[in-house]
Design a protein that fits this description.
With 487 residues, this protein is α+β, with helices and mostly antiparallel strands. The chain has helices spanning 19-33, 39-50, 87-92, 105-113, 126-133, 168-195, 201-237, 248-276, 290-299, 302-307, 327-344, 382-401, 424-427, 451-461; strands at 2-5, 58-66, 73-75, 117-120, 139-147, 150-159, 286-288, 311-315, 323-325, 350-363, 366-369, 407-418, 465-471, 474-482. 44% of the residues lie in helices and 20% in strands. The strands form 3 sheets. Strands 1, 2, 3, 4, 5 and 6 form a 6-stranded antiparallel sheet that branches.
């Protein structure tokens, strides 16, 4: 862990960081990182600058590693802490010892999903209090460093003089710093990967495009989001957000929504660039129980569907086999498909997700979908839809028992939304980048035509198949994933 520690002789009570100072610190950090050539140098520049802020006691950066299977998080202590801290400061830092305790496993699991974590000595379980007490810390603020949306490290800010809560301007500052540092790390890691092997001219162009987009688009968006948060804090302090008939909260929400939408577009562009260049998506497959996971995933769309007066149905047959796949990539696929279903389904219509184990013919080592289980399944009602799946499955299983070829299986997830139909000439292009079907966006939510191309690339990454069909005022998306050991 790389750390920067202040002398213990300063004022015992530190005041919150002012809003304008927080923004100035963020701008300076972005300037320092702009041309930083190496990861360790980035850490040094960030810590040397932020370590001078009197409102905090110490700031540290810890890198996080995973086990050989890429699953369990493993915090590691950096070996170059001493060389990055002057001997004068090192002598003043609790007998010159760096913070050697590893971050508790539970905190890292929280930071994989959250954008920050605050901890205090009095609020922690007994088994975790020693992490703060051994270092003389009253409270800590932890912010994740994420590279390609994966937890890469943690910025830890510590307060050893008071147990006051962290001010929103301080939290916003260090979230902004984490975003800026993560973007620079992504660029440096991508450059290192590009330098490690001889690549084609096309791949080099894609890598250059990725770097350009990261700096030219993501940095301004991070600034806008930071300023929006600080503006909201200021307006709230002035009481302007609670005035009767005030339009300010509505305008702030519009600004936040647009920032989120633009950030989503930028992330989709970067993800597509990485996938098409074969530069950076590593699978981390784990066992997944769909019967437990899918209700949790779809619950996030409940409020949106209710607001748009859409009906949702989830069909899960008993005894579904365990699926061995990359949960994060599968979640991205299904989230995008459910988003599209909500976006294009009229009010009073139905969005239905059904899961079924289906046979896959394995002939001469080449898998193809069973003819009775393609994406042309018709179902005018809930019962007929599910029954048609059951009948075709049973007949396929009966026939396979007498066959001479090896029978393998896949889990098929069929997402159907009613009240809308896509013409054949549009279906042929739905996976093309930037292609949008005219007049289909009935809710006027907008889009760029990048969602389904990204879904297709992620599906290929998982070794799965996807198909879309439409008739009888329904659209069906079928995703099939092979089962390694069906039961």
């Amino acid at each position: 862990m790389l750390a920067h520690h202040h002398p213990q002789s300063r004022s015992p009570v530190a005041s919150p960081l002012q809003i304008q100072d927080a923004f100035h610190h963020l701008v300076e950090v972005q300037r320092l990182l702009q041309d930083c050539p190496e990861i360790r140098a980035c850490y040094r520049r960030v810590l040397d600058h932020l370590g001078q802020i009197p409102e905090i006691s110490r700031i540290a950066i810890a890198e996080v590693k995973r086990d050989p299977q890429g699953q369990r998080l493993q915090p590691c202590e950096s070996q170059w802490w001493v060389e990055n801290i002057s001997s004068r400061r090192r002598r003043r830092n609790r007998q010159g010892n760096p913070p050697t305790q590893t971050i508790p496993q539970r905190w890292l699991q929280v930071l994989e999903q959250a954008d920050q974590l605050t901890v205090t000595l009095t609020s922690l379980p007994i088994q975790e209090r020693h992490y703060l007490s051994q270092q003389g810390i009253f409270s800590g603020l932890l912010v994740p460093l994420k590279v390609n949306q994966t937890l890469y490290g943690v910025i830890q800010v510590e307060n050893s003089s008071t147990d006051r809560p962290w001010h929103p301007s301080e939290i916003s500052l260090f979230q902004g710093v984490a975003t800026a540092l993560s973007m620079r790390l992504e660029t440096l890691i991508a450059q290192a990967q590009a330098d490690s092997a001889v690549q084609s001219q096309t791949c080099q162009i894609q890598e250059e495009c990725w770097t350009t987009i990261s700096h030219e688009l993501r940095s301004p968006m991070a600034n806008i989001q930071m300023v929006t948060q600080l503006l909201e804090i200021h307006l709230n302090q002035e009481g302007l957000l609670t005035q009767p008939n005030s339009k300010i909260p509505q305008y702030l929400q519009m600004l936040r929504d647009e920032c989120d939408r633009k950030t989503h577009i930028i992330n989709d562009l970067l993800d597509l660039a990485r996938l098409e260049s074969d530069a950076g998506e590593t699978l981390a497959p784990t066992d997944l129980d769909l019967a437990l996971w899918l209700p949790y995933l779809t619950e996030a769309f409940g409020d949106r569907m209710a607001q748009q007066q859409q009906q949702f149905q989830l069909h899960l047959p008993p005894d579904l086999p365990t699926l061995h796949t990359d949960v994060r990539q599968l979640e991205r696929i299904l989230t995008e498909l459910l988003h599209n279903a909500c976006k294009y389904t009229p009010a009073q219509q139905t969005i239905r997700l059904a899961v079924q184990k289906v046979p896959v013919d394995s002939i001469q080592g080449s898998d193809r979908l069973h003819p009775s289980q393609d994406c042309s399944l018709n179902g005018s009602s809930d019962s007929s839809f599910v029954d048609s799946l059951d009948v075709s499955l049973n007949s396929s299983l009966d026939g396979s028992l007498s066959g001479s070829h090896h029978q393998s299986y896949a889990l098929q997830l069929t997402l159907t939304n009613t009240g809308v139909e896509i013409a054949e000439h549009h279906l042929q292009r739905v996976f093309d980048k930037f292609y949008r079907i005219p007049d289909l966006d009935i809710w006027k939510q907008g889009g760029t035509g990048l969602g389904l191309p990204l879904v297709k690339k992620l599906t290929q990454l998982l070794g799965a198949t996807i198909a879309i069909s439409s008739d009888s005022h329904q659209v069906r998306v079928c995703l099939q994933i092979l089962i390694e050991n069906p039961t």
